[in-house]
Structure formats: C-alpha cells, structure tokens
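[stage:ingest] chain + small molecule (FE2/S2 (inorganic) cluster)
[stage:ingest] validated
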Amino acid sequence: MKVFEKHVFVCTMGKTCAEQGGEELCSVLRQAVLDNGLKGKIRVNKAGCFDQCGHGPMVVVYPEQVWYAHVSCDDVSQLVTEHLIGDKPLERLLYDGSGRLDKTKKIK
Ligand code: FES
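[stage:predict] done
[stage:export] tokens:
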C-alpha cells in the first residue's frame, strides 16, 4: 500500500478546538484535498487534543512537523496551495508554542 506524502492532523475532539470550529475545518480541508486531486497523497485526520488548548482550531502537518494556530476555513485554500502542494509553510498561521508566531496578524 502506498504511504501518504503528508499527514494533516486537525484537533477536533479537544475541549476548545471543537468549539472553535475544528470539525468544520477538518471537513473543508478534506474537501480541498479531494478538489485538488491530492487523494492518496495527503491524508487529513481528525485528532484529539494537542495539549495546546485555546489556540484552535489547531493543525499539525507531518512529516515536516509544522504547527498552525487559529486556522479558519478561509485559510484552507492558501494552506493547501502553499504548504500541501507548494511545500512552503504558511508563515502567517505558524504556532510558536504560545500563540501565532506572527503576533502582528489579527486572529479571526
Ligand atoms: S482542544 Fe485543540 S489543542 Fe486542546
């Protein structure tokens, strides 16, 4: 069986990401993967709490181990194009362990 090139984990079951839209984000990401012909290459999985509650919805992409905070459905198109297809992490959403790496950007 072919191994996925990337795994995208979306926190949907923790105590805050679920309330912050994790489930809907996961659905939109899965659809975007299909729409971009990435089925079989990129896998989007629901995940439990990443122990970073309050910064959600949170997303982690492997194998590069890139963490994103406060990802919205509006970010999905750019996330797919730039990171999942282009292999360039989306700087404005990066998580630094305490919040967004880029503190100048407004969180929606
Ligand atoms: S609920 Fe998402 S990190 Fe804890």
